Amino acid sequence: MADVGEKSPPIAAEANLFGKYELGKLLGYGAFAKVYHARNVSTGQSVAIKVVSKAKVMKGGFTAHIKREISIMRRLRHAHIVKLHEVMATKTKIYFVMEYAKGGELFAKISKGRFSEDLSRRYFQQLIAAVGYCHARGVFHRDLKPENLLLDENWDLKVTDFGLSALKEQIRPDGLLHTLCGTPAYVAPEILAKKGYDGAKVDIWSCGVILFVLIAGYLPFNDTNLMAMYRKIYKGEYRCPKWMSPDLKRFLSRFLDTNPETRITVDEIIKDPWFKKGFKEEKKLYLEEFDFDKKYENEDEGEEGENLEDEKSLNAFDLISFSSGFDLSGLFNESDTLVSSERFLSAEKPEKVMERVEEVARKEGLEVAKRKKWGAKLEGRNGNFSMIIEINWLTDHLVMIEVKEKEVNSGQGQETWKNKLRPQLQSLIYQPGQTVSGNQR
């Protein structure tokens, strides 16, 4: 995303966003998005808001990319990854409300001169902490470069821009990813070979290029002719400057290994003598966060792509995201998406809710086509519509019931839910002031 130094005010309609954020100067822009500095009206907190044009996204065929970026950023919570606070949407735009990195792009700092080996090591330790965390959660960035590394007010590194990221769910049966993406100077040789690649390995290659740039002040693989540069990358032809220490040259060679099978891994990186030097104990904690939390440990996609985990507890971010603006299925009004979604609270236990849902569904002639402990898929008699019911603990006393409807023949699903099922489930719906102390997990 291009950097903008001057103040470039947003249009008047966006200056006060939903009465919640005041948009300020333009920080940068890309093909279909602009990023503004903004202030939370109620708290005064600075945030960055990426404003995405729906029309440009749909015209360019990037609808799936935006949905995936939101999905990925929701699951990442790490000291060295830019946080996504919330997503809001209007008919024409999508707004990513993110953590504001006051220090700007790391690229801007490098362009003023190379870093010392010690400073490079410090930022590289933070980068590997974030990348290792992502990989442990099945997320591969695929576009790591200094322009996508920001600095906060404490001059600590923050990884951003997950627009080209991939999830482990995208891996084909051969165990590899196949989408060609990335920035030319940072792309791994196996991507150029077009035979499939390991997402973690290509991120590690990019990290090696970044480390080289931090210390040398220039790219290891560079040429005015793009194909000539690609040949250098494919053959692994680069030269280290004379001021690099022998330990660092050896370390770098493990990253810029053209054979992904022998390329260094995250586990090997954090044990390397050059990397470990000056590595403070509190920073090691970031590297020990690699285990999946319970929310994503056994994430299992249902038949239609909706998550039907047996048991889920919702974290604070999930609570924020229970707004119509965060319903990804409705972001672009595609014809082949869930046509409607409704959420409501209940003070009843999940088991009782599911029992009642099944009872009502069968009474109305619906088939319980797929059943899990706290979720079910309901289908119309002729397969003309389907519904996904999901139940999650919201607090220790309340559960959230989410109903998603998908039409085949328009109208029947919504009518069945609104006029037949929902009225019979009314007694389950939590009312303000209702006593809930008896329902506790």
Tell me how many strands there are: 17
CATH superfamily of the largest domain: Transferase(Phosphotransferase) domain 1
CATH fold-level assignment of the largest domain: Transferase(Phosphotransferase), domain 1
How much of the sequence is in beta strands? 15-25%
CATH architectural group of the largest domain: Orthogonal Bundle
Q: How many individual domains?
A: 3
Explain this structure to me?
The structure is a single chain. This protein is 32% helix and 20% strand. It has 441 residues and is an alpha+beta fold. It has 3 domains: 2-99, Phosphorylase Kinase, domain 1, CATH 3.30.200; 105-287, Transferase(Phosphotransferase) domain 1 (Transferase(Phosphotransferase), domain 1), CATH 1.10.510; 303-428, TATA-Binding Protein (2-Layer Sandwich), CATH 3.30.310.80. Strands 1, 2, 3, 4, 5, 6 and 7 form a 7-stranded antiparallel sheet that branches. Strands 13-17-16-15-14 form a 5-stranded antiparallel sheet.
Helix and strand layout, with pairings?
Blueprint: E1 2-3, H1 12-15, E2 16-17, E3 21-29, E4 33-40, E5 46-53, H2 54-60, H3 63-75, E6 84-89, E7 93-99, E8 104-105, H4 106-110, H5 117-136, E9 139-140, E10 149-151, E11 157-159, E12 166-167, H6 189-193, H7 199-216, H8 226-235, H9 246-255, H10 266-269, H11 273-276, H12 281-287, H13 294-297, H14 316-320, E13 340-346, H15 350-363, E14 367-372, E15 375-379, E16 385-393, E17 399-407, H16 412-424
Antiparallel strand pairs: 1-3, 2-3, 3-4, 4-5, 5-7, 6-7, 8-10, 9-12, 10-11, 13-17, 14-15, 15-16, 16-17
